[in-house]
Amino acid sequence: MRLLASCILIAASTGFAQAARVVYDWNITYTTANPDNLFERQVVGVNGKWPPPTIEATQGDTLVINVDNQLDTFTALHTHGMFQNGTAWMDGPVGVTQCPIPAGQKLTYEFTLQQHGSYWIHSHYMGQYMDGLRAPVVIHAKNETYKYDYDVTIPLQDWYHASSNEGLKVFLSEWNPTGAEPVPQSGFMFNNVNDSLSFVPGKTYRLRLINMSGFSMFYFSIDGHELEVIEIDGIDTQRTPVQSVYLTAAQRVSVLVTAKNTTDTNYYMHADLNTDMYDTIPDDLILNITAPLWYNNQSANFAASEDVGMGSTFDDMTLVPVDIQSAAPFDKQVNLTFDFQVTTDGINRGMFNEIPYLSPKVPSLYTMLSEGNDSLSEEVYGPQTMAFVLNHLDMIEIIVNNLDAGHHPFHLHGHVFQMVGRGEGVYDGNTSKVEWFLDNPARRDTILVPAETFVLIRFRADNPGAWFFHCHIEWHLESGLAAVMIEAPDVAQQRLTLPQAFKDVCTAGGNLYKGNAAAKSGLDLSGAPSGITLIPDAFTAKGKGAMAGCIIAALLGIAAIVTYSRIDPLKEGRTIAIAKSEKL
Ligand SMILES: *[C@@H]1O[C@H](CO)[C@@H](O)[C@H](O)[C@H]1NC(C)=O
Ligand SMILES: *[C@@H]1O[C@H](CO)[C@@H](O)[C@H](O)[C@H]1NC(C)=O
Ligand SMILES: *[C@@H]1O[C@H](CO)[C@@H](O)[C@H](O)[C@H]1NC(C)=O
Ligand SMILES: *[C@@H]1O[C@H](CO)[C@@H](O)[C@H](O)[C@H]1NC(C)=O
Ligand SMILES: *[C@@H]1O[C@H](CO)[C@@H](O)[C@H](O)[C@H]1NC(C)=O
Ligand SMILES: *[C@@H]1O[C@H](CO)[C@@H](O)[C@H](O)[C@H]1NC(C)=O
Ligand SMILES: *[C@@H]1O[C@H](CO)[C@@H](O)[C@H](O)[C@H]1NC(C)=O
Ligand SMILES: *[C@@H]1O[C@H](CO)[C@@H](O)[C@H](O)[C@H]1NC(C)=O
Ligand SMILES: *[C@@H]1O[C@H](CO)[C@@H](O)[C@H](O)[C@H]1NC(C)=O
Ligand SMILES: *[C@@H]1O[C@H](CO)[C@@H](O)[C@H](O)[C@H]1NC(C)=O
Ligand SMILES: *[C@@H]1O[C@H](CO)[C@@H](O)[C@H](O)[C@H]1NC(C)=O
Ligand SMILES: [Cu+2]
């Protein structure tokens, strides 16, 4: 890659900046890793190694990833944050823009990089990215907005000892009625607990912080150093000095840091886990993760900690994009209210508007492209696909009301959105309850929605395709906290043609690439995934039999925690439990 980068520089300096074809051959393979030094486990890696390589290219390049699935299960890759404008099928989420790639099959992802900034690539098949299939994607601008001497990527990751399948079995179980998520065994900066960074005195660094966690949210800071935020999720912002930043799962923040001129002291970088997210806090989980920042690794001491952890005053909604775009009034409002409830299958699920998302039999994008005028009706996408049909070029406002007592990061595929408003409780349309950000609001692709609050986000429906909108906590996505924006089906049918290779992937896995959510034609939806719903009038309903619910929950909750401890070889017999009863 270094060679390639210099080629691009030469091309640029001779006046004909030629876009490159940046090709990665990715055999998706099992291997083992022990990045936290506590437990060696099987992981999903690339070409027999873990971690997978960082992908690096320049805006305007064509990125090609030749995937050969050498696992014994399915896979699919999502390049997080790419608009995929005109190549919607390259987006990656199974059930939305593609069928899963079966074991032994190949598929090539190929698209033009129309954006620049910090992104990441990860599996979008069940919880597979938590097994290690995730890597940073750095797209350099042809002409970066800010100058710096060094460009360093710092992935922040949480780490589980049990496989995601084992985690899902425990999480999506009738023995887990409170929806207690498996808590990671550790977290680290870079790729393992021993990694560190060395600064050259006086130089300016761009640190690309990329939160590749499945669950955890971090606060990042460096003792003795000011951070200047310059990018969130690919959007350049005005330089904004802060002491620390937070990142929810899937968010990215670039900061500029100027190294000191003196080398008599070393410093620690901090990435503190947000403990509000965990229902239980294992007593051996290191919450305040540190990694050394070396100026002098021979003898010097470390400066005293200035870490404020969760006391951070960072607020991403006050950041100011360099490319100015004021908010425009919305044409259509999509009201999404979410909560967690035990459903008819006995499982505690996350859901929008009381309907858990169930993956349709045909990916929604393919339904959109194959169902003629029926693709304009939400019905054709299935009763539990949470499909919202958007008209081409409308300004869309999504209301996200969080009824839950936890924080959740929401990600929209295919777009960045403006974060135009927020407030306490549920947004009922009373605009005076909203704290507004209408003058060049901050834009990004993943937003934190704090407990019992709402946010308002807006985007222009100018990218025909089917775009997933979901909680980026993998456990919650798998349980049903998702919706699909069906953007301009009429225009999509004119502009988009599904490549043969994507049809072949469906066929190879025994799936169809045409038809409605039931894999039938027209509006005959019999057989479409459905029937996992709220329990009508049951004890789990709010305000009814709450006492009985709590007692049963407490008993079952303990059972769930014991069950979880059993699948973790290191945790045998030791658990600390704080049951989170608010969720009932
Ligand atoms: C970290 O360092 C320790 C001590 O030097 C070593 O035993 C361990 O293998 C290292 N772990 C990793 C993941 O590099
Ligand atoms: C991918 O796997 C195939 C088959 O085992 C092998 O021939 C090829 O060299 C591998 N490619 C890479 C980049 O490791
Ligand atoms: C790069 O951007 C800077 C600041 O926006 C501008 O001053 C400079 O002329 C640009 N350089 C090129 C080669 O476009
Ligand atoms: C990454 O995101 C997770 C989930 O939102 C969060 O708990 C964790 O603190 C984040 N990490 C950082 C360094 O911001
Ligand atoms: C380091 O030294 C340079 C040159 O003397 C000076 O301009 C700069 O302000 C100094 N930086 C710091 C962080 O003290
Ligand atoms: C310490 O510095 C030396 C020389 O710069 C370098 O080779 C070595 O990797 C450094 N060690 C650590 C732990 O950073
Ligand atoms: C982590 O840091 C916070 C803030 O400095 C502090 O309140 C807390 O006690 C620390 N926790 C641990 C486990 O060190
Ligand atoms: C779809 O609807 C348009 C406008 O209502 C109509 O002109 C067209 O014939 C319809 N196409 C089909 C295949 O029914
Ligand atoms: C959104 O839906 C919630 C839940 O049904 C409701 O309480 C709220 O008033 C709605 N908001 C708007 C603006 O319609
Ligand atoms: C709207 O909210 C404001 C501030 O909370 C409140 O004073 C006002 O009565 C509300 N208006 C309506 C129509 O509910
Ligand atoms: C997609 O491309 C069209 C032009 O073909 C452009 O008007 C639109 O703004 C783009 N949308 C996104 C989200 O990139
Ligand atoms: Cu969530």
Automatic annotation (TrEMBL):
InterPro entries: Cu-oxidase-like_N (IPR011707), Cu-oxidase_2nd (IPR001117), Cu-oxidase_C (IPR011706), Cu-oxidase_fam (IPR045087), Cu_oxidase_CS (IPR033138), Cu_oxidase_Cu_BS (IPR002355), Cupredoxin (IPR008972), CuRO_2_Fet3-like (IPR044130). GO terms for biological process: cellular response to iron ion starvation; reductive iron assimilation. One of its GO terms (molecular function) is copper ion binding. Residues 28-143, 151-276, 358-490 form the Plastocyanin-like domain. Keywords: Copper, Membrane, Metal-binding, Oxidoreductase, Signal, Transmembrane, Transmembrane helix. GO terms for cellular component: high-affinity iron permease complex. PROSITE patterns: MULTICOPPER_OXIDASE1, MULTICOPPER_OXIDASE2. Residues 1-19 form the signal peptide. The chain crosses the membrane at residues 545-564. PANTHER family: IRON TRANSPORT MULTICOPPER OXIDASE FET3 (PTHR11709:SF361), MULTI-COPPER OXIDASE (PTHR11709). Belongs to the multicopper oxidase family. This is Ferroxidase. It comes from Parasitella parasitica. The lineage of its organism: Eukaryota, Fungi, Fungi incertae sedis, Mucoromycota, Mucoromycotina. The gene is PARPA_02935.1 scaffold 5990.
